[in-house]
Batch of 4 targets.
Target 1
Amino acid sequence: MGIQSWTYLIVGLTFALYIGIAIWSRVRSTSEFYVAGQGIPAIANGMATGADWMSAASFISMAGLISFMGYTGTIYLMGWTGGYVLLALLLAPYLRKYGKYTVPEFVGDRYYSQLARVVAVGCAIFVSFTYVAGQMRGVGIVFSRFLEVPVDAGVLIGMALVFLYATLGGMRGITYTQVAQYIVLIVAYLIPAVAISMALTGNPIPQLGFGSTVASGPNAGIYLLETIDQIHRDLGFPEYTAAFVAGKKSMIDVFAITLALMAGTAGLPHVLIRFYTVRSARAARWSVMWALVFIGLLYTTAPAVATFARVNMVQTLHGAAYDEAPEWFLSWEKTGLIRFEDKDGDGVITYAPDDATNELHVDRDIMVLANPEIAGLPAWVVALVAAGGLAAALSTAAGLLLVISASISHDLFKSIFTPGMSERRELILARISAGAAVLVAGYFGVNPPGFVAQVVAYAFGLAASSFFPILVLGVFSKRASREGAIAGMLTGILFTGAYIVYFRTFRPEAGASDWLFGISPEGIGTVGMLLNFAVTLVVSRLTPPPPAEVQQLIEDIRLPHKS
Amino acid sequence: MAEGSRDAKSYWRENIRALVVLLSIWFAVSFGLGILLVEPLNAFSLGGFPLGFWFAQQGAIYVFVALIFVYARWMDRVDRRFDLD
């Protein structure tokens, strides 16, 4: 069987599985729809969180990005895992104890203000939509590359599937499909990684393999990371493992970006809401631990894949005659993801840091997608990678759509527009909003607005500078007041947003010397977050403290006993 | 237990103590060893890894998991002592 038949088979089987789970887990109450009846076991929720969190970008793009960044790739590795420590220690158990359905609802109750709730709804919907459009696009791209259907048709198929299980099963359906999707994506990620680690270093565990010696060839017996550093020196690139050298990000920028990604992770509504679905505050703590175990499995493998791919790519392509280039090179060349431009006309591929002599252009996505072919793995592994990419994109899309649906039906209609609504009607409305959100997301997937790709990268900075501080202070400071929180949120998000827009739109050519303290727009959320903390605390001192019933609410969420 | 009681206060103090200890380690390992001290640490090696590079791309993630594990265990015990679970 060829790659394409295998892909149809495996993708078809996984889709049938997701649909079966959706039908089995359909829901009848709003509590089941929004938070799965708060009965998800900690380990299952950990897996679901892993799939929810790891998007098309984590699965397809991250290893490739790291491969081009070397040490600096740590901003993603630590930034997208360290936030779970903040989540476990500072937020998840208390939000679970609070026990209602959405993040804006907590903001509204804790800061005794419908205005704060509406601002939070606005942020949640904005962040979720920009994120989800990217996922739908990812679904379309995987379909088009592996199944040769047009991107738009791929988006439509993905939409139909998410529509089915999100409207039928709500949070419960999404949770159990995410568990299945986690298993598909992690297996799809690990099999090629193990095979390549084995081939390159003789060690089957990728996490150890990239610290081992090269198994064969001219560099046999030399450490893999030494080999890659040597290759980089020879070609004129900065060393792979070196930090903060010329051509890489500065120390303060790496610091700021990492912190912004961590705090942003802990402030993203679709991640926070997953910890509303477990039985107790205690289960929430354990559930975050399981989530990070499952996420860490992929995140500790990714830097190994990045190193293997880098070594493989440079060694097989640099200095090779184009006529003798391997088969995978020619098949991926057709997709435009890898290009050879024979500038000096010698028919030999030259890879170099400077544009005048470099003849090889490699898209970062190719590192994971083409990995099985580069390593000469069988067709079914290639098909599995396609199914894994789809699982990563669909699971994240579903989690985001639920946040949007709950924000509309619960935070806007139930609390503001039609407060007397019956539960039956709210459930119908929740399903309709989920369906409508899928349609809007699909529309953006087919017609991606130019700003999406840019905004997704900054969504973390915006979440870090708006949500994170007021959620943490909401639990840890009894003094933090309505006025303080609103002032803090606005300061954080306006400062961060303005800085990003200023440097992206008006001064895109600016470099480190123009930036505030040398911090790039990607990392400025850290400064926005500190400003938010400072403004919230100072304004809270100057305004009346929260009323007695809010003080009581804080006392209550601090204690984990069952409510 | 009544909220606002002496027990509730000492439960919360115990929780804060765990947070201060564990978040200090969180900061020291990720930002300390993985970023601020990465260059001097790279002079040492762990097998085939420069040490600072290893912390930044592997070690920090293992430590994060361990920290959450320790916190969950720690608070389970505190919950039992205050009869909260």
Target 2
Amino acid sequence: MGLPLDAVLAQAMLGLTQGAFYAVLSLGLAVIFGLLNIINFAHGALYMLGAFLALIGLNQLGGWIGAPDFQINFWAALVLAPLLVGLFGILIERTMLSRLYKFDHLYGLLLTFGVALVLQGFFTNYYNVNGTPYPGTPASLRGIVNLGFMYFPKYRLFALAASLVVCFITWYVIERTKLGAYLRAGTEKPELVQAFGINVPLMITLTYGFGVALAGLAGVLAAPIYSVGPLMGANVIITVFAVVVIGGMGSILGSILTGLALGMVEGITKVVYPPAANTVIFFVMVIILLVRPAGLFGREV
Amino acid sequence: MKKLACSLACAAALGLSVTAPVNAAGISNGEVKIGVLSDMSGVYSAIGGKGSVVAAEMAVHDFGGTVLGKPIKIVSADHQNKADVGSAVAREWIDKDHVDMITDILNSAVGIAVQKLASEKHTITMNTGAGSTALTNKDCTKYGIHYLYDTYALPVGTATAIVKGGGTSWYFITADYAFGHSLQNNTETIVKSLGGEIKGAVQAPLGTSDFSSYLIQAQGSGAKVIGLANAGADTINAIKQANEFGIVQKGQQLAGMLVFISDVKSLGLDTAKGLQFTTGYYWDRNDASRKFGNAFYAKFGKMPTMDQAGVYSAVLNYLKAVKAAGTDNADAVRAELGKMKIDFFGSVGHIRADGLNVHDMYLVKVKSPKEFNPNVGHGWDLLKVEATIPGDKAYMSLAQGSCKLVKK
């Protein structure tokens, strides 16, 4: 190919940013699957919901409450939108999902798929399907920085850093703290953990809320980069599922590392053979599943 | 197995009897049925989609609701940008529901497949949404009409204006399917014929959400102009991200080869200002286009894209042809469409033997936020018409074309 090193580095950097989004999204899926055994198909729609909450807070909320100048800025949205998405998730878990735990996985999958379609349909009805730009990028994150091998938008650098921090904290809490130990034990042997006086159903509800809040956070982070549109979740969710499968269902560390790595694989593919960019992840998935059916980091059952 | 073979044979026999020519005069099946086949939920749904259905219904209403004393009915379906889904819908419409004409058919891959299938079944298609010139060349059919624009006409206005304005070297970001390839080839031809240079191209899959990688490649090529041979959400994302990476500020120019007004609305004037492109319709061009634009806005809450306006005009002219021919028989209506003047919001076109509707196109430029007048057009005062490209200049001549139906 004779590609100059700078070009490869630049593409890897872009891929890494994309990978960071994959990582945060697949992390949420992995937490939910690992601890609740739910295949959360609504994840993409909740990611979209996070982005829309940020957009609505900035553009429309003021008008609705009769104070046109009132705006929820990006930083506030970064905190509020995931909280709201998390609450919405808790509502879904309490009212619907919790009734399905005693049945097959398939029921949870169908329910969450239905929730995704309803959300998508709702926003398609009221907003531009092609997406609406999010104009609220903070002034401090506008513009580009020189990384030596390329000029890179400041905002993307921020999104990359923020995603990595969130991934690390989540991994640390679940794998290295007492709270995480309770969580893992609660899903393994709920009766036993309950006998120690721990409220397992509450823990499960909060875990689901946290998992979908991660999706909401990714949505807010994505809003300034991509247009906010009803289909943004549907476009990314299939890839994210592939990431989770490759990383090993339920493996926290696996989903983070796989997300980052596959983003880079996709980035490099865009230079080497662009037409395959959207499919390369699925080729990787097929090969990995042939060699390691439980995924790269999955435990054999 | 025997049973299956028998029922297959029976079904085939039935199918034959249905598609056998009906009586040549009058309206078959007691009504005229028009199918709007579009992308209802995907990347192109803001261009056509439900707005196309509204436009078709408005045309029926404006025509008077009946033709030759028989009711007119609109049906619609989502082809999901898949040629097989589109073909299946078209087959069912024609065989089972007796649809007389199919319109919109956004997406060239779907457009080519449906046009071929419909013509085999003696059904007229009036394609307003797809752009590939193959529709009236290599894949031209007896009943297929390419109504609104094609990938030859688009660059004639845009690329010519840009090359003459100093944009002499080009790099393409191309949607990786029939439409994108066709648009890129035709643009290249024009750029080269004016003495310009092609620095390279990259094929991006349809529905790419992150164009940054392709944009960096385009930036590295050193070309003066980055030509976007794509459409809809793809174009929007590419322009938005080019802005994010400061590509325009560093001196490269973007050229959207197919831009719809919905894209400009979605991008906002700050990002899109100064963008030049070629269109078949802009609502604020003359009285006729304003009248339709405002009526459409009252119904749909958005100004029409050129595709939606095209659907309106196609349905209206089809009904006029049915009326003039005194029948919905496809041969008679197609002959009538070939003879009559095609009124397109005050300009006049004609439909050739290869199915191409030759009509004027317009070179437009996106207004700057300063030029924008918030009191005009409900916030849709987005474009200004810079030049009119006469139909015979905008479109490929019959002599240049390769349609086998044209005797040379």
Target 3
Amino acid sequence: MPVQVVRHLDEALDALAAMPRAEPIAGGTDLMVEINFGRRRVSDVVAIDRVDELKELRTGREFRVGAGGDTRIRVGGGVTYTQLLTDGAGSVALWEASRTVGSPQIRNAGTIGGNLATSSPAGDTLPVFAALDATVVLRSREGERRVKFGEFMTGPKRNVRRRDELVLAAEWDDAGPAQTFIKVGTRNAMVIAVASLAFVIDAARRRVGIALGSCGPTIIRAADAERFAQGWLEERGWDRPRRPTEAERGELGRLVAAAARPIDDVRGTAAYRRHVLAVIAARAFDRLAVMT
Amino acid sequence: MRIRLRVNGTERSVEAQDHESLLTVLRDDLRLAGSKNACEQGECGSCSVLMDGELVCACLVLAGAAADREVRTVESLGTMERMHPVQQAFVDAGAVQCGFCTPGFVISTVALLRANPEPSDAEIKEALAGNICRCTGYGKILEAVHRAAGQRV
């Protein structure tokens, strides 16, 4: 049978191991477009959208490790954007990114595992996972692999997932409230990002994560900008909310734009993308610096 | 590939091609042409249906993956004699121009009002963002949703 509907994780992994050319399908929002347009011939499909083990969502206190310890957030690969928006995403930035995805129809179907596995440079949740330094949990019949997002995505629609593996979950340490996702597109809804940015200030861990979407072949971490923001916070105190000056915001924006490797395409020019990044990065810095 | 699914309350069994979408099964095999085929990439919403109660684009559902699901199309809502309140509201508000996008808008409105019986303008716009009307009659559509709001859908 070319389309196998599975209901349990083991069943899904067995099917992928048995059919080396099989493609998993969850929400279908990426794969079906390729099939409908004849861009991809798929021989075997494993429908994983009814696998409960992939729908695990642990965002609250029940997942705290020890008294006063770190909160580890875990989102199953089969969790839809709608589910994240309804039940909580464990990350403000991930919640904001999920809200910008497509339309209700797309958010009801599309999944976090699908966004990760497709690895489009415009994948809305991917800058958030990069900025959170999240771990992608891959599972096959042979076992589990844990890969940092930075090592997971290797190029446009390329990643280290093997064909017999599924994205079981994404995991990260709760980074606190000072985080945001900003996306610029040609309209509010149903839009593929011209440029997007995730900005995380994790005051508890003294860590800043800044990642850019739609601005290069992969999601790009703006390392110089992260160091600049980190230094700024070290100097002024991580726990003392304070607005950056216009010059400081401008410098942060300049460093973010410099990290991008954008191209000219139908959605925008490289120059416009750099401009947008500088603006939204400065805006995010301004907004988050007073929240730590 | 033989697929069994429940469409508008009736068990159906169809022989589907491997790469067929739920939309082609509905339109070509089951002759339910209310769900429209336009963009085939989830952009336009004219193929919107309720699958297990959730609003989805039928063009993005692989037919084989819809096995045993409960699908509701616009045909299940009302008849010419007895229209569904949302359909009636679209007629009363004149929220129809060429009519191609209307079934999708009606289904999306039903999904919206089930979750949120008294939506604001902003909530309506967000809920219908996945449906496109190229006649651009959005003002009347907004009015139709307000008319239908508060009624049992």
Target 4
Amino acid sequence: MTSPSPAAPATEPGTAPAELIGRSPGQLMRRRFRRDRAGVVSAFVVVFFFLVAVGAPLISMVYGKDPTTTYGLNETGLLNQFGYPVQPNGGISGRFWFGLEPTLGRDVLTQLAYGIRTSLLIAAAATALCVVTGVLVGVTAGYLGGRTDYFLGRFIDLLLAFPQQLSFVAFTPVVYALFVSPEKETPTYLRVLTLILVLWALGWMGLARLLRGQVLSLREREFVEAAKVTGASPWRIITRELLPNLWTPILVQSTLMLPTLVTAEAGLSFIGVGVVEPTPDWGRMFANGAKYYESDVTYIFFPGLAMIIFVVAFNLLGDSVRDAFDPRTRR
Amino acid sequence: MTDKVSLPAPRDGSPGEPLLVAEGLTKHFPIMGGFPVKRRIGAVQAVDGVDLTVRAGESFGLVGESGCGKSTTGRLLTRLLEPTAGRISYRGEDITRAGRRQLAPIRSEIQMIFQDPYSSLNPRQTVGKIVSGPMEINGINPAGGREARVRELLDVVGLNPEHYNRFPHEFSGGQRQRIGVARALALEPKVIIADEPVSALDVSIQAQVVNLLGRLRREMGIAFLFIAHDLAVVRHFSQRVAVMYLGKIVEVGTREDIYGRPRHPYTHALLSAVPETHDADGTRRVGAPPGGSRGRIRLAGDVPSPVMPPSGCRFRTRCWKAQARCATEEPPLTRADGNTEGHLSACHFPEPPTVARNTEVILDPALRAAEDADGAGG
């Protein structure tokens, strides 16, 4: 393309001059994403999981069971004398689609749906907090630079030095104790809040680091200088000039962060410092499943399969989002 | 394409009135080092005591090699960088230390065009947003609305006003630079600091953009500080020219003075590096001095480091006329004997005021040996 000459205005042949509306980078990204079949499929899978989480009560209503009723104890003939389902394959039947939980005899399908709900709620809230903190700290450090950047950077280093899983395990009871005295029962909402806080406190640094670097390179670009020459305030430069260029890393990082936090939360519940009975939880289903898998492998099968599908789909989605944003990526 | 559109009336202010004045402008970038406590161990003396005046309606060219402090000077004048020392005044008002709010009324009058058309436009904003941004920031509401004004500006710079909703990545380098010009024009400035506005463009596009800037200068009366390393472009565009070397202005004068009667050896060396071109019939030489063949001057070595510039005259390490005095005494920027008024040069031993040269000056020993061998062999 060359500069337009008076003889030939730069309109592409075939486009009506009245409709010269350019495609924004965002629109181009959406077009590229729609062409990526793996990305679209995994997006549907991810949306499906969120629908299950949100619609868990609805599923429970339509399906006619709830996650807390101990069907196996209330009715005879469902569990045998050792507490295992009488019917083969973990008690899968037309009534209990995913089978029954050993010992207590609760319904696995509703347990799983409600468990996904708990885990996704915690992970999504922690992700949102992490992204907000990461953006704030990263952009501040990158834009202000100098001493601010130095101290924020050392603080990030300090937090990154904590071994994450170990710190989660160690700190979660400490935070519980901050809210409620150890003798009393911790309310469920406080447990959820604590998990969110712990995941947040050690989860935001990666994004902050990344964004700091991005801002460092962006703020030297000439369009930032151009904005300064016209008298733009730092706030305007950050919100109008820098942030629109940061959506790509923010979006990619948060789609990759969410499944990590889901597994981290499941890990905590598996160990026993997460959400406790009777609140259904995805991670705790693994813990229970691990107890019974020698005798009843079906019980761990559905939560495990669901988790694998979810994490794989979400990671594929993150990759596709990144590819869609950056057409130069070759895999 | 643009003759139908009425350009805004020329700005007030009589031509020739000093608009933007720099006195003793200095910028030293500190070099930090040491462990564990960082401290200042030196400074890059990017700009060291530059005096210049941009007058209303004129184009003032600033030329020099890469790294001589041209762009830093431009950024100091727009207050993108804080000067270490010196004074900048705009229409007599001292703006050297003015803060963002104090600068606000003047901001609209001093605008800038950037070198790299690829990084000077925000890739996430439409052309309309880019060009209307300055108006939004300064709360300017032109009659007929901002969008109409942006379309008008796009037309002025030779772009299709229908490109309002397009994004920078859909344009070529030349078109992008035109968008940059439209953005600078949005505030109706009196001075535009053009930092190598065409050096990133194709040669064929360079002429178009330079002509556009020239038209804006004539028709809208905008003064330009035109920073470039291309002597031919500056000759075409600027009435007054300053030559910079290692953070200092070594010679300043009218276009005719600098290109026809240069006095400083460095200016001579620069001019002798401009390639001579001939017309098809071989009669007229473009870029050649009137009358006589032109000997070339080839400097040896690199520009010295601005961290530790040479004592006295900064050019002495590469000058074929350097003497003991040049190392001890810094030559002031003064009017040498035989110069016209306003033609200043900073040299103890100025060259004769002509660009015609019979002898070649080759300072590089390796190059001289090679040429001698060539001459002996051929």
